Amino acid sequence: MTDPIRIGILYSTTGPYGAFGRDCTDGAVLAAEALNEEALKGRGLPVELVLADPAGEAGRYVSLARALLREKGCRHIVGTALSAARKDVTPLVEKHDALLWYLCPYEGFEANENIIYTGACPNQHLLPLFEHLIPRHGGRVFLLGANYVWGWEMNRLARELLDAAGGEVAGERFLPIEETEIGRLIAEIRAARPSFILNNLIGPSSYAFLAAMRALGREEPAFRPEACPVVSCDLTECELPEIPDGAGVGQLAAACWFDSLDLPESRAFRAQAAARFGAGRRFSSFFSGAYAAVRLCAEAIRAASTDEPAAVRRAVCGPVHPTVQGPIRIDPRTNHAALPFHLGRINAEGGFDVIASRPPVAADPYLTGVRSGSRIAAPTHLRVVS
Amino acid sequence: MSGAGVTTPHFVGRRALILHRPDEAVARLERQLRVIGLEVEQRWAPLRPEERFDVVLVDADQGWNGLLPWPAEEARCPVVALLASEAPGRIAFAIAQGAGALIAKPVNAAAVYPALVLALYIFAERAAARAKIEALQERLRLRGAVLRAVDMIAARHCLDEEEAYRRLRRFAMDRRLTVEQAAASVLAGRSHLPEAG
């Protein structure tokens, strides 16, 4: 193989959740530049990224993915941030026997052979998050969700985990991504007096909510972040500039990587990213995850001597790979990465202070361990409540 | 939106039997079942009547009558049909084995979990419906006894039919019996209604 490796990059860099896509795309571009520089020096193969940007329009993911696979000759796509988009393009990826590299945290209950999952699933984000927060704040949790599969499934899981742990759902609301009229929701939360709030909103509704929570906390100290935190599994550095007036400061988020983590593997990468995108920018787990995914993909193609997905999957699954997020092992059973858990608190400098960490755990996308283990174990047999 | 009422089922430690010749699709199916948490056995030989599995996935393209040890529509565990064919006879075979869900071949990994959930749900729903029908049939069978008991109470206590029935019902409720059971008991002379009430 002497031709450059072609990798499709499928993210919306504009639209309501454009911040995710901008960090993912920039991380991918930086990885490709680094790989191409190495290739010039005779190490590895050059990479050609084919950028495709649906601009936040749900219907365009499928047509752009089809173009990448059919017309642009890509057998690998690093892409989609929202689960709804991933689920939309999956049948195409299967049909063309391609491989989708998905690096965002998601709601689990998937283990597709044509997808490599390097983002966290619930046993790597939601479970440790609850295990950390419930003993400290209590188990009355208000559940907020974006009105699509991520919000629905995360809230559903949260409800079941709370039932099993003897906790309680203090309230539940779903909001469209672009909904910013949240006065009624704040009144509900005020009346419900939850121990903490699980925020599975994304985009403008999430930013408006965080701003409103700060206003509520100023009125009533019981709703300040230290007393009743708003916690999220997908809020990262890339969105903090979008939240008006730093209203998120003090709130919490779980992630497999934070810009402020001082990992030996991240230092050179961070310097390289700062040189390319400016020293003031904070890099998110989306950025470092996309960087890591493009490198993993290119290196697996090189190791397999082909871009044929089954061979690439065999090359990438099993061994431990050094990445800028730390060493990563992808389980050949599930195609999911083992990932650490970090809990960050938003600081006034536009980043996160890491307040708790756990070492990497294998992904358990169908939560088999929760049900068989003893921690939050409860028999959840299929039943119909009439 | 989120399918309220049906909790997320789990399959940890449950035993699945795949009745299918080994091939690539079956390997994919086995892998996915294990990821979901099941223990898996695969073979191409009949399920014996004394064997117990929590779910059976059966090749409906090649399957023959007798592969599963139960008569049509009396499946003893949830059944998933594995089917590539559109032939009506093969679909009829799947139905006759008691299939509650099907997975189209070649097996798509994402189809496995939904099919298991559906097959379990259908199985539980059918069992509940069967139990309910049996209970209703029993009550229907005893309707005559209720009529005779009401007549007997009315005659013995000089009551009209409505009042006699009310007494019988109260008697049944006090003893946590169905009206039919109470009637049978009265007719058999095992019970006497209280005079007043």
TrEMBL record, chain A:
Which chain regions cross the lipid bilayer?
none
InterPro entries documented for this protein = Peripla_BP_I
Highest taxon of source: Bacteria
This chain's protein is named Transporter substrate-binding protein
Organism name: Ancylobacter crimeensis
From TrEMBL, chain B:
For this entry, the protein name equals ANTAR domain-containing protein
Task: Please list every transmembrane segment annotated in the UniProt record, as residue ranges.
Answer: none
Q: Which PROSITE patterns match?
A: ANTAR
* One Pfam match: ANTAR
Q: Which species is the source of this protein?
A: Ancylobacter crimeensis
Q: Where is the ANTAR domain?
A: 126-187
The record, for Gene3D superfamilies, names: 3.40.50.2300, Winged helix-like DNA-binding domain superfamily/Winged helix DNA-binding domain
